[in-house]
Amino acid sequence: MSGTHSRPSTGRDHPGEQGAEDPIRLLAIRDTALSVDEVFAAVGDPAAGGTALFVGTVRSHDGGSDVEGLGYSAHPSAEEELRRVAEKVVADYPVRALAAVHRVGDLAIGELAVVVAVSCPHRAEAFAACRKLIDDLKHEVPIWKHQTFADGTEEWVGAC
Question: CA nearest 137: which of 158, 156, 112?
Answer without folding.
Answer: 158
